[in-house]
Design a protein that fits this description.
148 residues; mainly alpha; 6 helices; 80% helix
């Protein structure tokens, strides 16, 4: 056996040795399957939700610094109350209605119009995405049956 073929053999053994031990290493420390991860949702912290709502409101309505200072406690209370509602649908609807009226009270008529237009656009975008998803699911044909 010459040196060239010996080097090839060693390289091949190293490669196949590495490939064959990879499944063993993965079996020793399994990662959660995608199906397992799909059942548990990532929950954002209340502080992150509050910051995101304030940022979205600033971007949608163009809040001034004074309005931002007034909106922050309203958002904080709304998020905290939503967390405490524990999925009570009637309570959540009541909270949302109160939140919208409180926020509208600190906005100018022009800002109220901007905010309403932004909300309408978001709803339309969501409806279009749902319709597209439903259409894609309806047109997907089932896989053909196997024939031997």
């Amino acid at each position: 056996m010459n040196l060239k073929s010996l080097l090839r053999a060693v390289a091949a053994m190293l490669l196949f040795g590495t490939l064959s031990t990879a499944p063993i290493a993965n079996a020793a420390s399994p990662e959660p399957s995608p199906a397992a991860g799909a059942t548990s949702k990532h929950k954002a912290s209340p502080d992150a939700i509050k910051a995101a709502r304030l940022t979205r409101l600033k971007n949608q309505a163009g809040l001034t610094a004074d309005q931002e200072a007034k909106a922050k406690p309203i958002i904080d209370k709304y998020v905290d109350d939503r967390q405490a509602a524990n999925g009570d649908r009637k309570k959540l609807i009541s909270l949302k209605t109160q939140f919208d009226s409180d926020i509208n009270a600190i906005l100018t008529p022009d800002q109220q119009t901007k905010l309403a237009a932004s909300k309408t656009a978001s709803v339309e975008k969501m409806k279009a995405a749902r319709a597209k998803k439903a259409a894609a699911g309806a047109t997907a044909s089932p896989s053909p049956a196997k024939t031997n």
